Amino acid sequence: MTEHPAPAQPAPKPGDLLALAVATARAAADLVRERAAGVVEVAATKSTATDVVTEADRDTETLIRRLISQERPEDAFFGEEGEETMGTSGVRWIVDPIDGTVNFLYGLASYAVSIAAEYAGEVVAGAVVDVPRGTLYAAFRQPDGSVAAVKNGEPIGVRQPAELGQRLIATGFSYDAELRRVQAEALVRLLPVVRDVRRIGSAALDICGVAEGTLDGYLEEGLHLWDHAAAGLVAEAAGARWEATTGISGRRFVIVAPAHGYDELRKAAVQAGFLPVDSLPGVVPD
Predict the structure, then answer these.
(1) Which of 137-151, 204-218, 233-247 is the least confident region?
(2) What one-character DSSP code corresponds to residue 199?
(3) Minimal CA–CA distance to 217: which of 270, 175, 162?
(4) Rg (CA), the chain
(5) Which long-range contacts (CB under 8 A, 24 or more apart) does 281-286 make?
(6) C-alpha closest to that of 204 among 259, 130, 258, 151
(7) Among 29, 141, 114, 17, which residue's Cα sits nearest to residue 68?
(8) CB burial class (10 A; 0-12, 13-18, 19+) of residue 167?
(9) Is residue 242 a contact partner of residue 256, using CB atoms and an 8 Å limit?
(10) pTM of the model
(11) How far is 96 from 271, CA to CA, in rounded Å?
């Protein structure tokens, strides 16, 4: 697990961190939007041939790092496309420059910029910008621990309670072929017990969908912290529960649902085979 050094400065104000996250995410979204209007090509691959990186991913993360470091040079940084850097302030920025890169590559209008600020190991501010639509989801943790979520400045909340069979659930699939097989088999068992399943292609937007009530839940194995750090805070603030634990294949599994329906969805995830039968709640390392 990543070490979080003892802060050498007074605790930052989460509202100030959110303001920086929002301004930076909007600037990054402008760059991504500009690149989407041109020719988008694969610059490299990562875990598999289908796990791609574009020059826009790299350039957007470079922009985000520069804008944040100009304002807060002593902070740590943990992004998808670059090396993790350590800091002395106790603040760590967790960034996905383009969440939904394959959608971006194909011209499908579902991808986002995601920026979270973590202080002493806890996410205290998060901003997610739906790039094609320009929608901003944001949340920060008040000094008393409470959180509130907004979409374009207006409060949002999760959907009202519904039976499991009436819930619309989002998911995603790994780039690893064997894990995709396991996920598909589990999905076959989950599908008959829910209303339907959606595969949008951006974890951050899926989780924000739970927060705003356009989805009843989200689950997926194979995520990284940058995929869900900002959106998870937005969902929590909107009345959802979320968990990062270990999935059936031993990788980070994230499940998000309205608090009133969380336990039932988690049980269904175990029964379908997304999670081990003896799984216990608990956050896994970065």
Answers:
(1) 137-151
(2) -
(3) 162
(4) 18
(5) 281/243, 281/245, 282/243, 282/245, 282/246, 283/243, 283/244, 283/245, 284/244, 284/245, 284/246, 284/252, 285/1, 285/2, 286/1, 286/2, 286/78, 286/224, 286/225
(6) 130
(7) 17
(8) buried
(9) yes
(10) 0.92
(11) 31
Which two tokens mark 169? 């659930």
Token look-up 């968990």 returns: 243
Closest-CA residue to 11 (of 98, 112, 138, 141): 141
Rounded to a whole number of angstroms, the distance between the first and last alpha carbons of the chain is: 6
- Asked if the model's pLDDT at residue 231 lies above 90, the reply is yes
**What is the pLDDT, as a whole number, of residue 267?**
96
Hey, what amino acid is at 77? F
Q: Which two tokens stand for residue 35?
A: 């690149």
Provide the pLDDT for residue 283. 56
pLDDT at position 46, please?
Answer: 58
Q: Are 171 and 197 spatial neighbours (Cβ–Cβ below 8 Å)?
A: yes
Tokens standing for 191?
Answer: 């599908």
Domains and CATH numbers, the chain: 14-155 (3.30.540.10), 164-272 (3.40.190.80)
pLDDT value at residue 145: 86
Place of tokens 């205290």: 124
> How far apart are the C-alpha atoms of 171 and 263, rounded to whole Å?
17
Bridge partners for 140 per DSSP:
125, 148
pLDDT at 223 over 70: yes
Selection from 157, 156, 190, 151 nearest residue 171 by Cα = 190
Residue with tokens 């980070």: 252
Q: Phi, psi (5° rounding) for residue 128? A: -130, 125
Partners of 101 in the β-ladder: none
